[in-house]
Amino acid sequence: MTHQGSCLCGAIRFTVSGELPAPNACHCTQCRKQSGHYWASIDIARDRLQLQDDAQLRWYQASAKVRRGFCGTCGSFLFWDPIGGAATAVAMGAFDGPTQTKLALHIFTDDKGDYYDITDGLPQNRH
């Protein structure tokens, strides 16, 4: 089983092998500012994530521990990549077609915007 995905303009394409885990929604200030709202993603072991087209992939060093990958052409925010980590977070919205997953958790809810409420009953991690 594989899942295909891309940025908005198609300059970056990727494949994830195997089943997708349940995603989380991050409400931290960085994710909200970069994505425009909260950011839903899944953590994928690096050996399960293959990039087919990545000439336009750009990295923003968001902190000493994390970089964020985006398309240099269309600006799509695709990856959250902890330096030295075993997995990369991949944006749920970048997948082509159904993912057969459901959101499982909200994280960094202390940072959420004041313009929305979290009312889906899923667990919430404040930090």
Automatic annotation (TrEMBL):
The keyword Transferase does not apply. Keywords: Lyase, Metal-binding, Zinc. Residues 3-117 form the CENP-V/GFA domain. InterPro entries: CENP-V/GFA, Mss4-like_sf. GO terms for molecular function: carbon-sulfur lyase activity; metal ion binding. The keyword Zinc applies. Belongs to the Gfa family. This is Uncharacterized conserved protein.
